[in-house]
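Q: Structure tokens for this one, please.
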Amino acid sequence: MAEQFDVIIIGGGPGGYVCAIRAAQLGMKVACVEKRATLGGTCLNVGCIPSKALLQSSENYHALAHGFAEHGVIAKEIGFDLTRMMGHKDEVVGANVKGVEFLFKKNKVTWIKGAARFTSAQQVEVAGATYSAKHIVIATGSESVALPGVEVDETQIVTSTGAIALTRVPKHLVVIGGGYIGLELGSVWRRLGADVTVVEYLDRLVPTMDGEIATAFQKILGKLGIKFKLGTKVTGAVKHEHGVTLALEPAKGGASESLQADTVLVAIGRRANTDQLGLEAIGVAVDERGRVKTDGHFATNVPGVYAIGDVIAGPMLAHKAEEEGVALAELLAGQAGHVNYGAIPGVVYTWPEVASVGKTEEELKADGIGYKVGKFPFMANGRARAMGDTDGFVKLLADKTTDRLLGAHIIGPDAGTMIAELVLAIEFGASAEDVARTSHAHPSLNEAIKEAALAVDGRALHI
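A: Here is the predicted structure, written as tokens:
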């Protein structure tokens, strides 16, 4: 006899575990299936959390070696202990995944350990046992996309998983892909002394972000010493005793060349984890990229089966998956769960950080929407000057007629934290004037947001 639940969630990552906790809070009997030895999915185990720990450690070292002197803080015989850095990273991961396990116990969520496979629309099999539920949620996340001709071994040629576990600093790290993951991890190893070259097929970095921000971002990373080969594709890789030889050619055609590296990071994107679930057996429809097709309420074409997070359309972001998990749990409880996809921020956690929400200038032009622009540089912000972090600026885009805030883009110190104010503004349909009229503490980095909002109307005060 199969054990019966109200809801079974397949996947214990940010979308899955948050959905499970919220459903349990709403009185449902909930189980979550997770094949890893720990909960938290890619994000907590080998993604968001460990990479941020290494980013912070490498930034601390770099600031001590290159930035603190201007504050009168002098250090001699500066060095770092990579083993200890990795140990700190592992401790942070351990605390987070144990925290999720505690929350499962607190909310009486059953953790079913193993890999799930559908046997019907209301049943899954895990490690030889069968479990059934009125509602089954697919939240199995994503994995790194493979690049033909470049075989990953997680030693010489690595994905993000291998890049956060290197045992030595590479002499030359080549990052294939100019998106969030590659730039974050490339900056970690550059700060620790590696030569870093980013090879990107397109002619710009972070293609989903505002073009002006991307251009400024490349210049700032260039000051850090990262080199770029844009408009270039990697067609093959040959591993040898002392490293890897990559074959490159221009994306638009031309003479090929080779590039030597001792470590290569493949970070060209991620794909939905759906091929081991037995979806074809129950008829769940997927798109050409293997993502589960859903309606506006996360329901698949098979009654009782739902999907959230990286396995469905939209940005592959942990916080997007969490919002979907909460919304779906509330819908299953008869409430009105909803996600505003126009108010989902994206952040690159380099230093300075890059953060964005809403429309880019390119998108507004393509859609034929009239808009106004307000910008303010951190060079003119008192707190940024005091910190010694004056690179970057705030850029706001508002409707030309109504002044409603349509997009917000920040490159600068703590941009990932600062963007929250603008996410809230977009969520509540605020105008640039609303933001401009809001009192901001002085001196604070957030004053740059107020000034950019004033600049939308041509009346910035401090520039």
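A few notes: The chain has 14 helices and 22 strands. The chain has three domains: 3-144+271-339, 157-268, 343-456.
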